[in-house]
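It is worth pausing here to work through a concrete case rather than discussing structure prediction in the abstract. The textbook approach is simple: state the sequence, then state the predicted structure, then interpret. We follow exactly that order.
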Amino acid sequence: MKIWYQSASSYRYEAVFDDYGKTLEEQCRRALRPDTDVYVTGVPVMMREEDRFKIIRYYHVSQILNNMRKAEKEGYDAFVIGNTLEFGLEEGRGLVNIPVVGISSSSYYLAVMLGELFAIVTTSEHFCEQYRQQVERCGLNAKYLHGTYYFDISEDDMALAVKNPEPVVERFRAVAEKAVADGASVIIPKPGLLPPLIYKVGLTSINGATILDPVSVSAKFAEMLADLKKIGIELSRKLGVYATPDKALLKEVQERYSRVFKIEK
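Step two, the predicted structure:
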């Protein structure tokens, strides 16, 4: 089996993300069977504010969808969107015929199996609101401990902290302890740059509350869904929710929209 893990960072394209990307590979491999191969990559072009502005996400989505089609053509069995805002998840599930897994949604669904209430510890107030909306779309409001559990840190600082993660993890721990005191029994660390730091120090629980590793969880979900697809359990295409265009229609769409598929300067 082969799984493609798609980071929204520029791993393989910018040196600042080298250690981060290699740690993602470790996290995926520890969760997967020995006979499952995983390929971790980023995108050629990124901007540090892509999570904050939806118009910038548009440019990320196009790169991720192109990689999704490439993965399917190259025989990958599943595709993981490792960006916690899950760029291209809905579109991708209607584009390819392999399982497409989101790092956030897979963590949410596992969290409600492992505990009563889950909390998200993140790195900005902006993320708190984005994830609240995401949880609501997943239909899990009743299991989500609402709160602004975050500490401020930049993407580059998190990427560089892989070699010395303890100071950042201590900041995470302080916020997580507050969430646990408020009633959380499962903690989900996000965005995607944060879990590798927690993995590096081996932190798996705080005061009895489970700390999920969204990277390992999403990789394992992808492997599981690929296995289930082999026995006929796969994404529903009922009512066109994830309808996939056939090759002829997809070719026509690409040709027709090619001259306008851009944003004018």
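Step three, interpretation. The chain has two domains: 2-102+217-257, 105-214. DSSP finds ten helices and eight strands in the chain.
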